[in-house]
Design brief:
The chain is about 50% helix and about 10% strand. It is globular, with a radius of gyration of 20 Å. Strands 3-2-4-1-5-6 form a 6-stranded parallel sheet, sandwiched between helices. The longest helix has 26 residues, at about 255-280. It is an alpha/beta fold. It has helices at about 15-25, 50-55, 75-90, 100-110, 120-135, 135-145, 155-170, 175, 200-215, 220-225, 240-245, 255-280, 290-300, and strands spanning about 5-10, 30-35, 60, 95-100, 190-195, 285.
Length: about 300
């Protein structure tokens, strides 16, 4: 094989995991997670993380290794991905990075800024400020300090990150992000693919997957995390807030279904837009049949 690693990106419900597993079985690969939500241990159903049976078929890495109470970041993903890459190569396996988080693929191929660690007391002070003042006032305070910030008041996680970095370093987040360090896969031969199934099929898969989640008792999974700090990255997992609202009697099951399915479809659309803007030189695969996808990928690899 002429490549050292394979990257398979795609929107949610596009069939990435199935493609990665089928390919791994055929080329002796190990699947490495590149999805920011599938790292969380407590939410296997809601994040559509590979099942125990799937993980028994082929080796997997970086799935469910982080608690929802942790502030997992792209910087930590970089460290974990470097380790997973080294372990795969030592085992003589081809790493197949798959997921839907564009930022993580950027870490793999382009590198990431070396942002100083924010002291815990600074982070907690910023979090308290956000909770006490609310997102609009907090956003105004952030803009006063960093007028160039493009963070919106509807994104508390990114607002908090931008504010605490400025507070800790005296420089805006954009300053640190302008200087990327070396990419995880720097110097390697990498094959890069984006799965892009027809929109109608993707929408059907979104509905089918959420139905499967309901049947697998995703409500119990969500119920166990009621009260999770809303500024934590895990609190942004699609469907979590709606399931909490149902448990609290604020939404009906029909409203939850409609909201989650609509939100997931919109998220998939944003992912595709991001991929088109950032990955125009990747190999785009429009086929929706798994055998065709694998045949197309293998024809490029071997």
């Amino acid at each position: 094989m002429k490549f050292d690693a394979v990257l398979i990106a795609g929107p949610t419900a596009s069939g990435k995991s199935a493609a990665a597993m089928a390919l791994a079985e055929q080329i002796g690969g190990v699947i490495v997670n590149a999805d920011s939500m599938q790292v969380y241990r407590e939410l296997r159903i809601l994040t559509a993380r590979p099942s125990d049976a799937d993980m028994a078929r082929v080796p997997h890495a970086l799935y469910g290794h982080v608690s929802v109470t942790e502030r997992y970041s792209a910087g930590r993903y970089q460290t974990d991905a470097i380790r997973a890459l080294a372990e795969a190569r030592e085992a003589g396996r081809i790493p197949i990075f798959t997921g839907g988080t564009g930022l993580y693929f950027g870490v793999l191929t382009d590198g990431i800024a070396d942002i100083p660690i924010v002291p815990l007391e600074v982070h907690e002070a910023a979090r308290q400020k956000l909770m006490l003042e609310g997102p609009e006032a907090f956003h105004a305070a952030l803009k006063a300090r960093d007028p160039q910030t493009e963070v919106l008041p509807t994104d508390p996680q990114r607002m908090l990150r931008a504010y605490e970095v400025f507070e800790a370093t005296g420089r805006p987040l954009s300053h640190w992000q302008a200087d990327n360090g070396p990419a995880v896969l720097d110097g390697l031969q990498v094959a890069k693919f984006v799965l892009n199934p027809p929109r109608v099929l993707l929408h059907e898969r979104v509905v089918a997957r959420f139905t499967q989640m309901i049947d697998a008792d995703v409500l119990e999974e969500a119920r166990s995390l009621i009260g999770l700090d809303p500024t934590l990255p895990a609190a942004k997992i699609l469907g979590l807030r709606e399931l909490w609202a149902f448990e609290e009697g604020k939404m009906t099951s029909r409203q939850v279904n409609e909201a989650v399915i609509t939100g997931t479809r919109q998220y998939a659309k944003r992912q595709i837009t991001w991929f088109r803007g950032k990955m125009p030189d990747w190999i785009w695969i429009p086929q929706h049949d798994l055998s065709n996808i694998i045949a197309e990928i293998k024809s490029r690899l071997l």
